[in-house]
Amino acid sequence: MGLKPATNPDVEAVAIELSIDGKSVTAKGGVSLYDVISSTGKIIPAMCYHYTFDPFGSCGMCLVVQEGKKAPVRSCTAKATAGMIIRTEGDDLFQARKKAVEKHLSVHPLDCPVCDADGHCELQDTAFQHGVTNLANAKQKFIPEDTRSPVLDFNMNRCIACAECINVCKDVLMIDALQFMKKGGFNQVVPKGDLALSCEFCGDCLAVCPVGAITNKFSKYLYKPWQMKKTTTTCNYCGDGCQMYLETKDAEVVRVTSPLSWKNKWGDRAETAKGHGGLCVRGRFGFEYIDSAARLKQPLLRKGNQLVETPWLETMHQVVDRFSEIRRKHGPDAIAGLITARCTNEELYLFQKLMRAGFRTNHLDSSARYGHLNFVHASRHALGIGRSPNDWEDLTKAKAVILIGSNITETNPLTAVRIKEAIRVYKAQVVVIDSTVTNMAKLASHPVLIKPGTEGLVIDGIVKATLELDLIDEDSTTKHPQAFKALKAAVAHVSLEQVAAHTGMSVEALKNTAAIFAEASRSIILCAEGIVRQPNGYENVLKLIDLAWVTGKLGQPGCGVNTLTEEPNEQGAVDMGAAPEFLPGQASFNDQTARDRFAKAWDVTLPAAGSGANLVEILKRCRSGEIRGLYVIGENPLATLPASMEVRAALDRLELLVVQDPFLTDTARMAHAVLPACTSAEKDGTFTNLEGRVLRVREAIDPIGESLPDWHIMTALANALGCQWEYESSNDIQAEIMKLLPGYYNLGQPRKVVPTMDRYLSNGYTTDVAARYRASAPSDPKNQRPFALLMGQVLYHSGKLSTKAPGLITIAPNTGRLRMNPQDMERLAVGEGTTVRLTSDRGSMQLAVQPDHSIAPQTCFFPEHFNEPPVKDLMSIQVDPVTGVPSFKQTRVTIEKA
Ligand code: SF4
Ligand code: SF4
Ligand code: SF4
Ligand code: FES
User: What pLDDT is stored for residue 6 in this prediction?
Assistant: First the structure.
């Protein structure tokens, strides 16, 4: 339709003047007239329009009179032009709109009493507003309901053919899973090809449907909209931090809805650069874990071989007595703690305070150790900032994006929508470099499939190509001639031809990527699991920073090197100091000024500088018997780490294992005491998303059973250990954090971080860089097992938590099958369901296979969310010597027919 906002944010759209209802209005030229009218505060009915996608112009509701035109015009599809004289009110327009409503109602079943949208229906509202009372001529459609999708039902008798669902899916999500099809004389919406719906199941089509034609399978017939309490909160699945409404009825979560809605259709389309307000499948349909029957409702205490339900008081006495005894006999260093980054900032803060000020140990870590800390350490080391510098708006308005090692639509689907908008609206060139055929690769201008594990070499090649093609920003490099010389010397041995041979990325593609990145005005790098969760993740981030430096992209508006966080609060875990190397605010644990400040604030002597074990070291010390008591909050190392980490042996050796979790996890089954914790739906607090925005988490329901918020349990534990904590709510903890970290909360806006590399370039860079690009000779493929086995995330799951959500398990159950490229299956003469023997250097197991076109040849994949069979145990582990991050998501395997 061409009604998009200016596609280049560097060029301001022409300002025009037009008259609306006698008032002069200034607007951007070329945008929808409807947007201009709504910007004046006038809301005229519109049933097929939504500002997030191109206008369709089917409902005939948004009629206005334009001077000089005989008939009323549809304001949604009309472009605003200078000098227009528009009238939006009057009896003629009222009657015309009324006719349009009558037309829609004449083919609508009026089964409102059993419709989910009853009371929340635009057709009802507009019929009411226009006094439509003649319903005698309604034609019945008798279209059978399409219930084939696992999450959505399509009742096309109710459809008014507005196409909002089709447009959001095609235009915003770029999935294009729906279409109109004429059947039995009526236009109806069907999944593409009239097959069962096969898509990402985000439910955005449901959100924008103005009537009850698309319904949510999980909450159908469970409520009337007015019976629901609506709580605005932040999603607990990934680091995108989407805002959502948890809707509850009688203390039960019945559905999740999004800010994206037909109710919220008025806005300037340019506003979607900050997000379109939708959710992904996990956020919208993954809520049922909250009141799952498997939730722990009572503390459990080990009595003999069994975990027995025990009152809180008795359990806490036992826990405190036994921790105290360990501390008395063996000192505080015999105790350690692990926490999940699904906890709130306030809980993560309290956790590190409890470990340091309560137990007096610095052996503590969080799940940010699984990869995010590689990024944080590299970025702090080179740039002095410990998080991604760019926000969603920067990503949306980027002109060039290098997306390396990230299956972004699976891990961070709503950040992926930002990249989609960059492609669709802002015409960004996007280079996707991955060893999987990702969904984003299919949309990108430059998809590049590489050999698994060669991401680091690819970066070497892009840096080398940048230097070879002289794509250098002189302002940046001339300030630091020694550093630049050192970088050139470090990459002197890199041969683009060899990189191409080892990685599968052609010399031309390496050069193209270098040029695209260097020449664009706003260039973004996004690196994720394929970099930060892989060996050399720390160094590879540093190399990406080198690339941004020499091309002059550091600190420039809309440019930067970024990462994604898979769990909702990995950034918060680092910021709150839930790592042995950091105090809150990412102050170094060894920094004497910071130590003095926190010691004074907490009125304690901190554990010695230089002390502290991270996740891998904690488990090692559990195995050796040095650590005897372990406090685990929401983490499940037994189910996460491969057998080679000997987690079971480590936990077996403990005198006291206390697990605090909403569920009885594999690790909890080994515990001496299990403390039932709430989910994020039952507590208040905040998460810090991947942009650095601090977002509110709000209590939507009372705690299930006798479960308690993690902060509450930690406060009780600390006080029993002799601390005098007076926190009565998450707000009290927040008040303390605000004093210690002024500006952290910052009203939900990311604090601006300004990367500066000058300090590093003049101090330490020249020595570092020589080692960074050391010739990494990949092992001879002939001596390798022929397949790469990858474990990773799938869209429908997040960690192990989503496996407790029946909705998500219905969509994506554990098939227990190894996913393979169909060509490889043909070569091995195995069909779907055939059992194969999968062998790595760590062991062997049998499992069935299934074809998957997104898996590259000579690669196979198993989702990391499932342990049946325990494919993770075939993995080897490599620990980064600088950051302590363990990598265990990739190995080489042999596949034979069993
Ligand atoms: S659920 Fe999402 S992906 Fe599927 S059809 Fe609806 S909008 Fe498209
Ligand atoms: S299903 Fe809903 S959103 Fe889609 S065309 Fe019909 S009425 Fe519109
Ligand atoms: S899982 Fe991530 S992308 Fe999906 S709704 Fe939640 S925060 Fe948003
Ligand atoms: S809103 Fe303009 S025709 Fe439907």
Answer: 41
